[in-house]
Here is the input.
Amino acid sequence: TFTGNSHYVEKDGAIYISSSEQVKILKELSEEITKRYRDPYIMMNDSLEMLKPGDCVIVLYKDFGYYRGEVMRRSEKNPSQYLVRYVDYGTKAFVNRHSIFLNVVGENIPLQVNRFVLRNSMPRSGDEWEKEVLDLIHGIIVDKECSIKVLEKTRYDEVKGVEIDLLEEYDGYTGDVEQLFESLGFIRYRQ
Here is the structure.
């Protein structure tokens, strides 16, 4: 069991969570990267190089902070944009090339996020998660302090089943998020 914050809920229902210690490291890492990338010379230095899937990069986010990322692919509709995964948060976004930099900082620091699933939860109908439900779940748990209990030990790179208790209130509720989600009709329990 550990305390942490969730960052993102993916379309397959996986939740990206960082421990409290990882959240502190992320803050320090972001500050260090942002300090370095405020230098205009760095920005001009690699702005014309072509990016390819798998490239480790630094990405300017809409909060004007710089974060570690990985290039997933180039946009088919707009060749000046790339789909980038923010590796320490799990989120993905299309980003303009001028906001992506190859001079990576922190490449030797391990990822500061873990990918989990709620152990007993399934989509409320069928096998696919509805976008509206994922958005509601995201709004309830993202950026909230939680207690996370890992219930399934798996290989290093696999998703692990967890129980999550909200430590910060959501509409007067704290406690087991699966119970909350079930009461709101967002999930059904596994058989």
